[in-house]
Amino acid sequence: MSDKIKLLQLANVKIADNSEFIAFYLKKYGEFENVSEKEICSNLNCSVEDYYKLALCKAPDVNSNEFASRLNNISQYTGIAVFGLSNIIKRVHSIMKLSENESTTYLMAARDKNKKSDIDDNKLNADR
User: Which whole-number Å values give the CA distances from 72 to 4, 9, 41, 109, in the listed order?
Assistant: First the structure.
């Protein structure tokens, strides 16, 4: 592995937990789909160096009107097809949104249960 690729890899590791970068989406995609970096490179038809260059790019906002334009720019810079990149980012974004909504639903259910419990307790105290 060349020094350049090692440096790109180290930078990738440092930002992989920051959702502002594509590294975050690549890491999450690998976790969700249970695939390795090597398999993602194969799916994207890119070299390891291009993979790390991609990872260091700022992630485009899925909800932005500029999403396609930003993907095209990233694609030109890295040589990675827009379609594969778009699929990864949108898949991770969707799963993250679903899991976010799911945890909110559980919290709301727990809150509602506590309210019902409080109401039942007040009713019992009033009956005494």
Answer: 25, 23, 18, 42
Q: How many residues would you count in the chain?
A: 128
Residue showing tokens 């194969």: 42
CA distance 46 to 98: 29
Burial class (CB in 10 A: 0-12, 13-18, 19+), 127: exposed
CA 73 to chain centre: 20
Domain count, the chain: 1
**Residue 118: domain span:** 3-127
Count the neighbouring beta carbons within 10 Å of the beta carbon of residue 113.
10
Bigger pLDDT: 22 or 123? 22
Give φ, ψ of 58 to 5 degrees: -65, 140
The pTM assigned to this predicted structure is: 0.75
At position 70, the amino acid (one-letter code) is R
Residue 128 has pLDDT above 60, yes or no: no
pLDDT of residue 103: 53
